[in-house]
Each structure stands twice: as structure tokens, then as C-alpha cells.
Amino acid sequence: MPFFITENGPTREARFPKTSTGTPDGGVHDLFTITGAAGAGTCQLNQPAFEANRKNVIFRIPTPVFGAGLIEQIRDTDILANLGTEKPAKQRLQIRYKLNIVVSGNTHTEQVRVEGVPNDNGNDGTIARFGWKAQNKSLLLFAGEAYNVEMGISNELFQTEREELCPNTAVLMPNDGTNTNPDQIGTPDPPFDVLSDIEHFAAFMRFLAPPTPSDTEPGGSASILKGKALFTQVGCHLCHTPSLPTDPNSRVAALAKQTANLYSDLALHQMGKNLEDGISQGEALGNEFRTAPLWGLGQRYFFLHDGRTSDLLVAIQEHRGVGSEADGVIKQFDRLSETDKQDLLNFLRSL
Q: What is the b/e burial string over 152-162, where b = at least 16 CB atoms within 10 angstroms of the residue's CB?
């Protein structure tokens, strides 16, 4: 059992920022292998050396997917328009980038005022939005990657086996795919029996209802309302945008013309040394993360990308530090009275 999987801890995946030769890695490493399992035959795949890589391993916990269908239907133009709002407040709190630019072999630092940037898809230039670093464009891609990376099941989006040293001729490749013979799997239920697993997973996520916030729990309605006002007062809303509209022309009528109360701008922000993981994904660098949606926060046990804490106050404080665009906001949070801080925490827990 890997040392970071514990009885009362979060469900985690592991990534190594560097390979054994010091070059960038960043990929997910399998927690377990089939060696010794029934049907594994003589396969002798070794488990990754997690213990030996204690200083070269970072963790990720799953991102909640309630309301994900609404997030998928938010237009790029609305994301970009939102990023251009409240510029004076964002600049005052230094919600911007410091880019290192190399000129003629000499490195100098140029401050560029950018109020968050999306993780643009490298193929069509549109905005990706799923995953801790907004590295996945769509729920179908999100599902396909998870089936391959977390479950080890190849599929039509990820056709190649991650480990080909133990071929099993009895298993078709890829493991999952469109079922072109639905009448052979029992009572057919067209058109759904034709769909691959990842299509089913994507549809399931797409129609999960968004979380419903509480008006009274915890702390009572007065505390929650005051905490909501303080959330804006200290500047949390500048990145954790309370709501964004969905596309009025969405093909899915149930998701069209809706308000997604996600509390995220879906953009990348530099988060400083405390949260840096050294992993680049798409246009996201090692210290950049997508603003995590806060809806459903009251139902979560573990916080931040690696699940390092169950204490919401600790999670807030981890946003501070040199190089973090949230540092100015955290300083304003620190100036609140203890009562006001509790009201803000009650508001977050009500979501």
C-alpha cells in the first residue's frame, strides 16, 4: 500500500515532477499493478518506487463534478469578459503575473498586468476548463483520461496501453469502445447500448445537478449573509467569480440559459510556493492552478489540489505567500475580526 493512501485520508493519485534523470515528468503513476492478481499470469510489473521518491512526488485528489455540465456550456466570450472586469481592484491586489523573459541570454523580470489567463486548448485555441489546471477541454476528454489514467482502461480517446510489457491476447484493444453490436449484450436499449463507457461517464457528469447551498447551515442565516458580503469585501470574488451564464443556444435545452453559481473564473492564476507542484499541463505552469469552483464546498472533507488539509482556514492560509496572486486578498482576510472570519467560513460552508 503506498504510504500516502491511508484509511481516513483522501483518495489520491501520484505524479513525479521529475524523472530519475532529472527531466520533466508530470504524468500519473499507477498506484498498483496486476502482478499476483487472478488472470495476470507471469506478468511482473513493478509498483512505482513511491517510498524512494518521497521528495519527488506530488498528489492530486479528484475534482468534484457536480454541475459540470453547466461549466461545459459557459461560452469562452463570457469567461474572457469576466476576466476583464474590476481591473482596478485586481491590480491593486496584484492579481496579475510576473513573467520571466529571456532577452539576449540575460534574464530580467517584466511585470505584466493580466487578470488571470485561460488554459487555451492547443489545437483550436478555445478555453479548456476541467481538472485542477483546466487541462481538459470537455467532459468526454475528462472521462476518457480518467478511465485510462485512474482505472488503467484504454479507450477510444486513449487507445494505447500505458504498459505494453504484459500483453493479454484475450483482451481486445482498446479495452473500451463504441459497441457496434449492441444486440449481442442482452436486451438492447438503443441508442444507449451503442455508446462507449466514456460516453456514458460524460453524460452522467453532464447531468449531475449543481450543489444547492443552505440558507441557514452552518451558523444561521445572518452569519451566512454577512459572510457572503465579507467574501466580496476582502476580494475573494475577484477570482472566485460567484456566477457565469451558460450558452443560450446550447444543444442541451436543460443546460441553456442557466446561471452557473460556481464561484470560479475558470482561469489560471499563480498561487505561489505553498501550492506549487512543479507540474505543467497545457499552458499551466508549475505554480498555476485553475480557480477551484467553490460550490459544494460544505460537503467536502479535503481541500486544495492534494487534499493536504480538512481545515478550511488552513486551506485559505495556504493561498498566501510571495508569488501568489491571492496574497493581497489573504492579507485583507487576516485583518478581519475572529467573528467576521467565522462568518466568512460559515458562508463558504453553506455553499
A: bbbbebbeebe
The grid coordinates of residue 77 equal 466570450
- Residue 273 C-alpha cell reads as 510556493
Whole-Å CA distances, 196 to 110, 131, 181, 200: 48, 22, 12, 7
C-alpha 97/C-alpha 269 separation (Å) is 8
Residue 289 forms beta bridges with which residues?
A: 269
What 3-state class would DSSP assign to 298?
helix
Determine the angle formed by the axes of helices 221-234 and 327-334, rounding to 10 degrees.
130
The tally of CA atoms less than 13 A away on the side-chain side of residue 70 is 20
Name 112's bridge partners.
97
What is the spatial distance between Cα 103 and Cα 329, in angstroms, rounded to a whole number? 33
Tell me the per-residue pLDDT of 288-316, one tens digit each, with 9 for 90 and over. 999 999 999 999 999 999 999 999 999 99
The whole-model pTM stands at 0.91
Cα–Cα nearest to 348, from 320, 319, 313: 313
b/e per residue, 197-217, with b = 16+ CB within 10 A? bbbebbeebbeeebbebeeee
pLDDT tens for each residue of 191-218: 678 899 999 999 999 999 999 999 999 9
* End-to-end Cα, the chain, rounded Å: 35
Distance CA(268)–CA(265), nearest Å, equals 9
Q: How far is it, in rounded angstroms, from Cα 347 to Cα 351?
A: 7
